[in-house]
Amino acid sequence: MEKYHQTEFSPRTGRPSTQLTPLRLTGRHFPDLIPATEKKANPTRQCGICSRARDEREKKIRRGTKYYCADCETPLCVTPCFRIYHTVANS
Q: For labeling, which of 11, 35, 42, 52 is most exposed (least CB within 10 Å)?
C-alpha cells in the first residue's frame, strides 16, 4: 500500500477549457423586484427556467414572476429557479 501512496497531488491533466465561465456562475447574485414602469405598477415576466419546461402534452409551461437577477437581467422564480440558474452550468 505504501508503495502506491503519494503525499503530493499530481497536476491536472488534459486540455484546459477554452470557454470562459459565465458571469452568472461566478459572482454573488441576489433576487430583486422587476422595476415598475409607466404602464405597470407591478410588472411580471416569464421565468427563464420554468418557460423552458414542457408539460405532458409537450406544451410550454408558463409561470410569471415578479423577481429577476439585476446583474444577469433574467426574470427568475425565487425558488428553486434562481438557485438553479446560478449554480448549474447548462441551465
A: 11
